Amino acid sequence: MPDEKRPEWINPDEPEKFSTVIRKGVEVEGQTTFVKSGTFKKKRQDDVTTEQIYEGILRGERTMLARGITLIESNAEHHFRKAQDLLQKLLAKSGRAVRIGITGVPGAGKSTFIEAFGTYLCNAGLKVAVLAVDPSSSLSGGSILGDKTRMEQLARNPRAFIRPSPSEGKLGGVHRKTKETMLLCEAYGFDVILIETVGVGQSEVIVRDMVDFFMLVVLTGAGDELQGMKKGIMELADAIVVNKADGDNLTFAKKTRSEYNQILHFLQPATKGWSTKAYTCSSLQGVGIGEIWEVIQNFVSITQQSGVFDERRRAQTKEWMKNMIIDQLQTGFFFNPAIKELLPKIENEVISGNKTVTTAVDELFQVYYKTFR
Ligand SMILES: Nc1nc2c(ncn2[C@@H]2O[C@H](COP(=O)(O)OP(=O)(O)O)[C@@H](O)[C@H]2O)c(=O)[nH]1
Ligand SMILES: [Mg+2]
């Protein structure tokens, strides 16, 4: 029969061992199918409405929180709209958590601190969300994976929630995604949000702009580090925590703390009406963790009374909006088809010395504005 054939995975040397043949299917006119189309369709993100996610988050359902965050992190245009719709609904419910940023060089012990501190807060009856801003994650595929093993205990705690750093996408990027995820977590009912970031490049400035309290985790014996450390980072911090104050390191840690305190004395404080101080702790042994929570609570009460707390949040919202406008302008400009076509030509003219930069930019904008008319 010409419409019959052996499948290609049959061993040609021993074809008799297989009785299978492939036969062409036939269509019978008027025959109806037994399975209604769509029955086996995979349930996707899109099958859940924003309303369902909204209600789920307010009811405290973890799966719905995760779905909401997935929406926010998605780079698809239609998810972007849905995510904004969700945020709009939840906005009034957000804002009640204490937002804490934690920075420091790799290996300082940020993740270990969060494990100890987060567990301490959970034991005190609070609910804790841990987010991360990791500038290297879009390249390395997420170094927080290694961190999650450092936060094993916290990751298993039903009062805690750990979300790795989102990878960078076209629409807005890590900054927006982390900020919006934070708002979602607040609406869900977390009391404390901890944001870990590696102290490299711009990420600590970005995180400072998202949080109420900003903490720098440092190592002992940092005499040299102190010299080399950018004064700028210290001026962003509301507390400097000398970690690993245990074992042989303890005396050294205390010495380091007073060295930092001396320097802090001459620096501009990060928050009006608050003096930044250095503390010691051992994240591994859980020593000094409670004291840091007391410091933060004290900070919140002082700044709330003076109005600095709300003032900062308002300023952060304004700054966030400004950044998003800049973001959109940039994307809108560079992805504009007319600009994309024209830019390389004009660049060449500038490079070859046939056009001044100012004239070139002016020409580009003329073309850009014309595309709106
Ligand atoms: N002795 C001691 N080691 C610590 C302490 N905190 C963290 N470590 C160790 O320092 C290393 C780096 O910690 P990790 O939390 O991953 O640092 P991160 O890169 O800042 O997040 C790990 O091997 C930890 O076990 C501490 O309080 N005492
Ligand atoms: Mg870490």
TrEMBL record:
E.C. number(s) listed in UniProt: 2.7.-.-
UniProt keyword Transferase present: yes
SUPFAM superfamilies assigned to the protein according to its UniProt record, in alphabetical order: P-loop containing nucleoside triphosphate hydrolases
GO molecular function: GTP binding; GTPase activity; kinase activity
Top-rank lineage group of the source organism: Bacteria
Record CDD domains: MMAA-like
GO cellular component terms given for this protein: cytoplasm
First-level EC class: transferase
Keywords in alphabetical order: Kinase, Transferase
Gene3D superfamilies: 1.10.287.130, 1.20.5.170, P-loop containing nucleotide triphosphate hydrolases
InterPro entries, sorted: GTPase_ArgK, P-loop_NTPase
Family affiliation: Belongs to the SIMIBI class G3E GTPase family. ArgK/MeaB subfamily.
PANTHER family: METHYLMALONIC ACIDURIA TYPE A PROTEIN, MITOCHONDRIAL (PTHR23408:SF3), METHYLMALONYL-COA MUTASE (PTHR23408)
Protein name (Swiss-Prot/TrEMBL): LAO/AO transport system kinase
Organism, as annotated: Bacillus benzoevorans
